[in-house]
Amino acid sequence: MKPILLNSALAAAVKAARAAGRVMHANWHKAKRVNSAEAHDIKLELDVQCQALIEKTLAKAFPQVPVLGEEGSTGDTTAEYRWVIDPIDGTVNYFYGLPHACVSIALEHRNKSVVGVIYDPFTDELWTTTKGQPTRLNGKIIRVSNRTELSDCIIAMGFSKSRDNLEKSLPHLIRISKQAKKIRIMGSAALELVYVASGRLDAYIERTINLWDVAAGSLLVENAGGEFYTVPGPNGKLRMCADNGKLRKKLKIGSLLK
Predict the structure, then answer these.
(1) How far is residue 38's CA from residue 248's CA, in Å, rounded to a whole number?
(2) What CATH topology corresponds to 150-251?
(3) Which of 144, 162, 216, 220 stands 20 to 30 A from 6 (CA)?
(4) What is the pTM (predicted TM-score) of this model?
(5) E strand or H helix at 181
(6) How far apart are CA 256 and CA 71, in angstroms?
């Protein structure tokens, strides 16, 4: 496959994210069809609709690029380039009427993100970046925070609800909550990542997460001067910590990411 012009890919991803965001916002207060409900998660028909809209928009510009998405994949996802999509990150928030959910789109080249776009339709905030370029929020360059002391920091954590994850995560939650200014559990990995990139949060930790939750946000954090650290987990999951580049050792979460 010929090299993809990243600016062209960015433009396509922005167009797709905004289109899906409009659908999210238009349906926010409407009754929503639930495709499946698990103990701690919900899958909506709107998730499927938004991913289909994103795929259609991206395919007009890049018909040859496959898609790896939360709501299914198309094409050969082992190809040199692929889109990685979470059409509604924070579905449970969205279903319950909490305006904390977003669209996340990344372009990967050989399994490394080279384009990242995250759009929050409720605040009309658009985070964008490409490989080697700064992270921007609505066109303005942003940077991670400069805070170095946990006592000054707001730390976000996320939790997979399996017994193993809770047993290993809760002791760290208790310990860090005593050290940090505040702990936040917000329910959208992609937004937590761009909040780190924006300096609103100082770190975000999660022991079990999917690639489509972090593919765009990881690049946005790194290009804003932060650090995205990850190790492989079971069943294709990831263990991760994103921070401003100054806190991971102080957080002492090595055992959590094992």
Answers:
(1) 33
(2) D-Maltodextrin-Binding Protein; domain 2 (3.40.190)
(3) 144
(4) 0.95
(5) none
(6) 28
